[in-house]
Specification:
291 residues; mainly alpha; two-stranded antiparallel sheet; 9 helices; 2 strands; 66% helix
Length: 291
């Protein structure tokens, strides 16, 4: 089973040509002693076989290609910036009046499908591909721009700005909680978040099937009072996945991940923030709309 965030469903940061991350098996010693590999100071270094990893060998030359927080911030800014630019262009270029509403929906659905396929490709690639990650960001931006425009025009004026502010608030809140220790990413936390995400996605797929074959809103999980409840649950799950992203970045920097892996961190953060924004937009639309 895979998480809703394709980055975590596939792997964490790479180690040489292998894989390491949350879903990697613990070291034999940790398994034998029952130690928690997420506990501070007990995690096995996934880069221990790399003689140039920080702190692995006395007298080893200082690494010049290790990932830093500046690398992650820069790549994330590029990826999210492209999402915003593509969304703004799609908002202004693609008309959503009654005469062109059908075409706008078609373009949005096409962009969403391409973005989803690219997210899977990026998740299954052994090495991060900056062009494919940026291409994903561009198509995701087109989808978000058109959908946000439609919601703002026909359902809830100003919903896009409220969703952006809400997403920023969730990001800031989770970051502060993570840095202050209010949120601790342990193996139990990871398992709970993944189980919740998988269960939520399966439930939404069932709801979609009922909507496609039965018409209307399926089982009613995306409108009315149930829609509000499930929207809040989805945002909470997204916030928890965001904490997993932060842990992944922190471990990658601490263990001397190669600089190119900053693109993987940027991709994971972008996927999670897009999830939160979409759910925030849906929640605002339900609260302000006729439903």
């Amino acid at each position: 089973m895979r998480s809703s965030n394709p980055v975590f469903s596939r792997r964490g940061f790479s180690r040489d040509n292998g894989h390491a991350g949350f879903n990697a098996a613990p070291q034999a010693g940790a398994a034998a002693t029952g130690a928690n590999p997420f506990a501070q100071g007990t995690a096995a270094n996934p880069y221990a076989t790399n003689p140039y990893a920080q702190g692995t060998q006395p007298g080893a030359p200082a690494r010049t290609d290790a990932m830093t927080i500046d690398d992650v911030v820069t790549r994330t800014a590029m990826t999210l910036g492209l999402v915003v630019v593509a969304a703004a262009i799609a908002w202004w270029v693609m008309p959503v009046d009654q005469a062109n509403l059908g075409s706008a929906y078609g373009v949005a659905i096409g962009a969403a499908i391409i973005g989803f396929v690219l997210s899977l490709v990026n998740s299954f690639k052994r090495r991060p591909s900056p062009p494919l990650i940026l291409l994903y960001a561009a198509f995701e931006g087109v989808f978000l721009g058109i959908v946000s425009n439609i919601v703002s025009v026909y359902v809830a004026p100003g919903a896009a700005m409220q969703a952006v502010l809400g997403t920023m608030a969730v990001f800031a809140g989770v970051l502060i909680a993570y840095r202050t220790g209010l949120i601790r990413v342990t193996r139990r936390f990871y398992g709970f978040v993944m189980a919740a995400a998988i269960g939520f996605m399966l439930l939404m797929m069932v709801n979609l099937l009922f909507a496609v074959f039965g018409g209307g809103d399926g089982l009613g999980f995306r409108s009315g009072a149930l829609g509000i409840i499930f929207g809040i649950v989805a945002i909470v799950i997204g916030a928890c996945i965001l904490a997993l992203n932060f842990k992944q970045v922190e471990d990658g920097i601490a263990y001397g991940a190669p600089r190119e892996e900053a693109w993987l961190a940027a991709f994971g953060l972008t996927v999670t923030l897009v999830w939160i924004y979409i759910e925030m937009l849906r929640l605002v639309a339900i609260l302000q709309g006729d439903d």
